[in-house]
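WARN no homologs supplied; continuing
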Amino acid sequence: MKSIVMLILIVCLSIFNLNAQQQVQKEIVLVGTMHKVPKIVKHSYKPMLRRAKKYNPTAIYVESPKGNDSLSWAYLKNGWSKSYKQFYHLSDSIKNVFTPDSTKVLSLLEKDFSAMTKQDLQYLQKTFAYHRDDANFGFYSYILKHGLKGSKKPTRYEDGDLTYKLAIHQNIKLLNAMDDQRTNDKYHEGWSKCYKEGKNNGNNAIMKKLNKKDYNSAILPAIFRGLGKHTNKKKSLQTSHQLAAFTYTKNMTDGCKQGEKYWNERNMRMAKNIGESVKASDKTRNIVIVGAAHIIGLEKELKENYPQFKTTLVNEL
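OK structure emitted
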C-alpha cells in the first residue's frame, strides 16, 4: 500500500514539475538607446552590451519596419530616411533578378555563424533584401563587412555597437523587426506645427529649458561611460517621452496634439508587434532595443495589453 501511495506521489510531483517548466513566464526587457552618439563618447554602448549579454536573451527585437508592413513601406520608400529609401529600391531591384530558395535558407540558418561561408552570408543577405527585411539585411551586411568579431572601431550606432554584437554572441540568427512608421509623416507634420505655434506661447522656451537640463544631466555619466545607464533611468526616460510626445507643453495647441496622437499610436502598434510575436514564439527571454523616447509608451502598452508577460526596464534587472 505504501509503495502504491509513494508511486502516485512521484507521478503527481513529476506532472507538477513538468507543468511548471512548461509555464515559465515570458520576459520582455526594454533597453532605451541613444541611436547615434558623438565621437567624444564613442564607447558608450560597451557597458550596455555587457549588460545585455549578462541578461542572456533568446530573442532580440529592434526598431526597424517589418518586411511585410506595406503601409510603413508605402511611406518610407519616399519618406524621411535616406537609408530606408535606398533599401526599398534595392529590394525592388533584387526581386527582378533573384528568388530565394526557402529550403536552402532554413538550412543555412541552422548553421553556426562560424560555419557560414562568405557565399552563405551573401545568399542570406540577398534573401533578406528580397523580403524587404531591413533589420536582418543590415545584420548580415555587418557580418560580411566586419566578420564575427565585429567592427574594431565603434560605429557609434546602436546596431553596430550593441544589437549586432549581441546577436552574434548569443548565436541568434534572426532579429525581430517591430517598428511601425505608417503615420510618421503626420507625426513630423505635427512636430513642425507645434514648433511654429510654440514661438509665441512659451512652449519652445519650456522645450529648450528641458533639453538643456537633460543634456547637462548626461555630461558626467557620459564622461565615465555611463551614458547608457543614465539614458535608461526612469527620470531620463520620462523626459525623452515628454519631448517626443509634446507633453511638456504649457499650451497644448493643435500641432502639439497631432504630434502626441501619432507618437502614442506608433508606440501602440510597436507594442502590439512585440506582444503578438512574443505570444507566438517559444522564446522566453526577449530584449527590445529601441530609441529611449519610446520606452515609456512601450512599457505602458505592454503592461496593459500583455499582462501575462513580465515587462521590465533594463535598469530594473
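The first strand starts at residue 27 and ends at 33.
OK
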